[in-house]
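ARCHIVE CARD
Drawer: 12
Card no.: 0347
Subject: one protein chain, sequence and derived structure
Cross-reference: see card 0346
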Amino acid sequence: MAVPKKRTSKSRRDKRRANWKLVPPGLVECPRCHELKMPHRVCPSCGYYAGRKVLEPKEARK
């Protein structure tokens, strides 16, 4: 079994762990109502996806 010969320093260890950051979701503008939405998803405000109506908008459902 592999065993490290030298101890890993704190700076080397922390450099490796520095890339676990959260990134905000990428948002795109809906071409129909111009609201921000997640890409490749149905627009929650107008209910359209790829130019056709898929579901009722949030306001009409309530």
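Annotation on reverse: The chain has a mean pLDDT of 90. The chain is about 20% helix and 15% strand.
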